[in-house]
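Reading a protein record of the kind used here takes only a little practice. The record below shows the convention in full:
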Amino acid sequence: MSKHIKSFLGVALLLGATAGWAGGPNYTFDFENRIPYVWHPQNWPNGSVPVYTDLGNFKNSNPLITNERADQLTVSGWDQWNNVPTSTFQAQVVGDFSALGLSDINRTNVAQIIGANAFNGGGVHVIYDTDGQIFQQVLGVFGVLGIGVLEWVDTDSPEILEAYVILNGSQVRSGTADPNAEGFSGVFTHEFGHIANLGHTQANGAAYSFADPNRPRGCAAPWTSGPLAAQIETMYPFIENTVTGSGPHMASVDRIDDIAAISNLYPAPGWPENHATIRGKVLLSDEDTEITGVNVIARNVANPFNDFTSYLSGQVTKGQVGPDGSFELNGLTPGAEYVLYVDNLVRGGFNIPRFIVLPGPEEYYNGANESGDGEDDERCAWTTVTAALGAPATVDVAFNKVKGAPVFTTLGVNIVPTDMTPDGATIVGQYGPEVFRWTEAGGVQPIGGDISGGGLPAVSDDGSRVAATVKDASNILNWAIHENGAWTLLPHRSDAPPAGCGGQFGSVYDISGDGLTVVGGTYGNNTCNQNLSFRASKWTAAGGLETLAKSPDSIRANRANSVNYDGSVIVGWDDHSTGLRRGAYWINGVETVIPPLNPVTYFNGEALDVTADGSMISGISGGINRDAWRLPTATGEIEFVSANPAFTTSSAAYTLSNDGGVITGWSTTSNIRTPKIWTPGLGWTNFSLFLNAQGTYTEGMDIANALTTSADGTIIAGWGASQFGTVGWILESPKVVLCHRPPDNPHTPTHTIDVTFPVGLANHLNHGDTLGMCQHGGM
């Protein structure tokens, strides 16, 4: 008759938590016919789903939350869903666990409710986890306020048969902060919504809790204020469980967002036809391909934070039967004017394929001008849609793309690209604890090797050899090369301590373009005193492992960071005896320390990259002034690419194109790192703002920095931070977009063009063009 659903559905989270389960509707019975799982209250006595409550107190410590108070919150929470007039859903408390022959449930006997063999005749079982030990000891989760789980369904129909809710009494505020669990009341209602098979939604909640813009990011809106705690939707995944926070307000089902969600699953007569509807599809810029998992929000211009609703495109099919960009916003106010916009999900769990970065910028629906052309369809322009009774409005939203703009692609979570071949066709880096190799055809492919602990994976120019720091059978990190599908450990120094230092014999930072030279740092001298032990080193098949020369005025460590194509030029750092770091490079084994501009305060702290021919080096300064620089080895003269006259930032030139004309790096001010890109035309420019000017936005991810660049600088890869963890990315920019005005006719209207990067960019910027698209009507 029934089967067990294998995963949790609903989780209410403490404000600030970063993980969760859910999506909405959470579970679908028939993807092709868009039939979700639902309860059938009419099949139960009295026409409602029976609910049974726990026997013990909800919280034993101060304040005491008694069983009686918990039962009151349970009844009121279910009544919020029962009393939605456009829904037929009904669930009623009919007794406690004693009616099922069960005692008070705690961590020692919770298996009587949850688990593959714990079917208790159907209905909903509400567990009061008095001390939080079920969450901590049984489920292994901390800081979670509650969970709602659909356990049993009919195998032949979409009917839900049995479910349970666990509410975490240990998370009720202590002392006089919440003596009656008012701040926790929203958790009850929220979890009961999950039991009805409702998923999380995002509209007012993210704007209130995480400062997510209540409009497309970077755009104005026909309103100026923001939502209050009282206006947050019940099914938003984060609850501020305080008396003065969002918790008490989320206990009420009084927003169209929640009312429409429960009514869509359990429609009463007249739903949705007796209300207004806006429906449509979310599309890629080709205006044909549908996209699943995009949040669509509608707001009444006259009442934007009370009269609003949202829908995740394809939320019923969840992408299981092909691309589905459909959305349907029901329950709208007839005659009202709404603005619609596409929105990226910020935080929380959603049981639907979702984006780290959307395939285009967040944007408004723009009426007759709505298209995938980012030049003609201004993303920040909105056209209101009239919600008419009995006549659903149909609108499609296509993500914008600007002709000639760079293409930004995410590689996935827990991925850090660190090196690429000159043509950008192969990229390597770290994927969790392993090394990965990426190609366009094969995507990200782990190639083994536990590299957690140090160094940076690097690849030869033909992609055949990958060098990295890999753990051996004794769990000690060694230099290693991957070739022909296997790793080969390289010998460590003969005078290395037997167990290495800090779990490693050394660390790899680069491999030469010809694949014959590996560079980095190694431990030796039979000691783990880093000043005496750690040395810049190189390995070649002909010469084996060798340490590089060290400056006479250095009594400390040095290291090699990068190497050119044939291994003749190696760059890195060599610590001065004062402890200040300075850049260094070795040409055919002969070391040159990059001289400081000021012997006391200004050392050129690290050489970070070198061109294939060894003619140009980039790096970061040390001491007080920490500017990014490049250095032609022919002259040995530092050229600063980041001006820092006030000494307020720390800047690094991390990667170089082969002619030194494209540099990526970062600047840090007050411990906030900003990614940077440099070309002779751009100067030292904020990388994210450069992307935004191209119509490329990365909502949902903060770019940290680029770590590798193709030979011509048109392909750049790096990493960013997101709610899912570290995210790898690739930017392909053979062209960039400019606002052009013919230099010989200053009265000619401007128009948007695309030019080659970086040469065409420099030429056009030199005669007065500006980065990015022209504003409509610009002169």
The mean pLDDT is 91. The radius of gyration is 30 Å.
